[in-house]
Amino acid sequence: xxxxxxxxxxxxxxxxxxxxxxxxxxxxxxxxxxxxxxxxxxxxxxxxxxxxxxxxxxxxxxxxxxxxxxxxxxxxxxxxxxxxxxxxxxxxxxxxxxxxxxxxxxxxxxxxxxxxxxxxxxxxxxxxxxxx
Length: 132
Known about the structure:
It contains no helices and 7 strands. It starts with 24 loop residues before the first strand and ends with a strand. A hairpin with a 6-residue loop joins strand 4 (91-97) and strand 5 (104-109). It has strands spanning 25-29, 48-52, 75-84, 91-97, 104-109, 116-125, 130-131. Helix content is 0%, strand content 34%. The mean pLDDT is 78. By secondary structure, it is an all-beta fold. It has one domain (25-131). This is MALR1 protein.
């Protein structure tokens, strides 16, 4: 019944740990001159999104949400837009419950159709605090 929107227009979103914007993640717009994508998922060239810096040599990069609290129903949905390019590897979403030390993968896409925006809604069932 309550939801928060994160669009990166003013910052890196309260849902994300600022310290976890690591391993080459940058906030940029399509006008940055860094190559595709040249707009956000709505076709807005001046809108901001997160992107991996092109020269990133790391084999992986992580974004982690702040601690999310369970709802009364124990169900949460997270919807996000993502860009698949010719250089993409695999994008994976996982959940780490606070009672566990491991991250459980709950979704992934390796991008068979490239150079386009996609949208994904993930449903999370948890009765305890967690991070995605």
